[in-house]
Amino acid sequence: QVQLVESGGGLVQPGDSLRLSCGASAFSLEKIGVGWFRQAPGKQRERIACISTTGRTNGTVDSVAGRFTTFTDNAKTTAYLEMTSLRPEDTAVYYCAAGRPGVHISRTGQYICPRPAEYDYWGQGTQVTVSS
Hints:
By secondary structure, this protein is mainly β. It has no helices and 11 strands.
């Protein structure tokens, strides 16, 4: 199993920004899809953002659209989740995942982020706490 190493979490105030990192230890992300998920205490894992296997398309769910973006570096070794305008409801453990999920396109032509079961490798999570 490939280990994904996550970092970048921490305690921030509302309105602050954070950048989470996710690196693959044994393979390049060049042809690997990346997904970002979060899980708050007592709640189910939530899909928030993703990068397609080609790296040409990404997406976010409505709850974080306009605030969160995800991308890989030029070497395709690390994926990032850029989070801005953080809110208390963003508090959760954030996970990255990697694999080769299928491509899902809506009838309106938008890329739909894959479900957790479509990814093979997972990071151990990093805590993000947004509190005043």
